[in-house]
Design brief:
The complex is a heterodimer. Chain A is mainly alpha-helical. Helix content of chain A is 63%, strand content 0%. The chains are: A mainly alpha, B mainly alpha. At the A-B interface, helix 1 of A face helix 3 and helix 5 of B. Chain B: This is Protoheme IX farnesyltransferase.
């Protein structure tokens, strides 16, 4: 069976992909923080007032 | 043998991106974004009432991302003409570091994200204004007006004028005459600012086929129109004080700036046709940046002092 042909990334492609991945991760983390903070700011302690 | 086995991977239109996060940040036009953030902050802080500071920061962030998204959509559509002009040739799309499709996707995702964030977390009036601003800049200005009429930046300038109004709407949930005046200051400032640039960069715009005022109506007509807009801008800049919204401090600053703007525009009006260096146009362009920054900073300072001391105008 023939060996599966793969795309070999250059060092530059690997490096920029890594940087893009880190940037996407940071952006997503930032979005989580934004919505967490906004939830607290909008509802305050009332965020815990919910029926069980 | 299956067909797929006969195909070489090199035949596929495969392209691995070499774009850095910096290229994507460049798509957001950070310099334009900084102006948007600044004017939106002024609108938000100057508005009456109080807003939760965390929500205020989120509102400014959403407005900034929305403005950046419209910049990315602009770079997606304008890659062909950006490649021709010296000022824009090194942007990520014309330089080939980001594909047009990637820029389009990036712009669309950020547009939806910024508008929805502002709507859900702040209010839907400001979100609607932000959505309209993105649409106006990307579709009305970039796709339609820019390549069609020398009035492109006059009408398209509305997109850059909305941020203080969006900031105001984020804080109050409404639109008022004060926020409309802030809109008008940027709206009337835009034509003389860009036409001063277009005068000494007219060769670039001509090569790209963009119908800017100097290469359609001529330099003399552009100089007259710059002066006319300066005459309109100066009193509108002073209007917040004349209408009693600010203190004398703002009145003095805005009046001085307005007179300075008219003076620089007068020098442009008197610039000879054969003047190739165009120093007066370059001076006006530089002063126009100072004008906008200082007049909004003065408005912000005036309103902040009024808030902190509890004294209205």
């Amino acid at each position: 069976m023939d060996k599966l042909e793969m795309v070999d990334l250059t060092e530059k492609q690997k490096k920029t992909r890594r940087w893009r991945s880190i940037a996407i991760g940071l952006a997503l983390a930032g979005l989580v923080v934004v919505f967490y903070v906004a939830t607290l700011a909008k509802f305050g302690p009332a965020v815990l007032n919910r029926p069980f | 043998m299956a067909l797929i086995d006969d195909r070489n991977i090199d035949d596929a239109p495969f392209r691995m991106s070499e774009a850095t996060p910096g290229d994507y940040i460049a798509l957001l036009k950070p310099r334009v974004m900084s102006l948007v953030v600044f004017t939106a902050v002024v609108g938000l802080v100057a508005a009456p009432g109080s807003m939760n500071p965390l929500l205020a920061i989120i509102a400014i962030l959403a407005i900034a991302i929305g403005a950046g998204a419209s910049g990315a959509l602009n770079m997606w559509y304008d890659a062909d003409i950006d490649k021709i002009m010296s000022r824009t040739a090194s942007r990520p799309v014309p330089a080939g570091r980001v594909t047009p499709g990637e820029a389009l996707g990036f712009g669309l995702v950020l547009s939806v994200l910024s508008v929805m964030t502002l709507g859900v977390l702040v209010n839907w009036l400001s979100a609607s204004l932000l959505a309209f601003t993105i649409f106006f800049y990307a579709v009305i200005y970039t796709m339609w007006l820019k390549r069609w009429t020398p009035q492109n930046i006059v009408i398209g300038g509305a997109a850059g004028s909305f941020p203080p109004m969006i900031g105001w709407a984020a804080a109050t949930g409404s639109i008022s005459l004060e926020s409309v005046i802030l809109f008008l200051i940027i709206f009337l400032w835009t034509p003389p600012h860009f036409w001063a640039l277009a005068l000494f960069k007219s060769g670039d715009y001509e090569r790209a086929g963009i119908p800017m005022m100097p290469n359609r109506a001529g330099h003399a007509s552009t100089r007259r129109q710059i002066f006319a807009y300066a005459l309109l801008l100066a009193p509108v800049g002073v209007a917040p004080w004349l209408l009693g919204y600010t203190t004398l401090f703002y009145g003095v600053v805005s009046l001085s700036l307005g007179l300075g703007f008219v003076w620089y525009a007068w020098k442009v009006l008197k610039m000879p046709d054969q003047d190739k260096a165009m120093a007066p146009a370059k001076s006006l362009f530089g002063f126009s940046l100072i004008y906008l920054f200082v007049i909004f900073a003065a408005y912000l300072g005036d309103r902040l002092i009024a808030h902190l001391t509890g004294l209205g105008a």
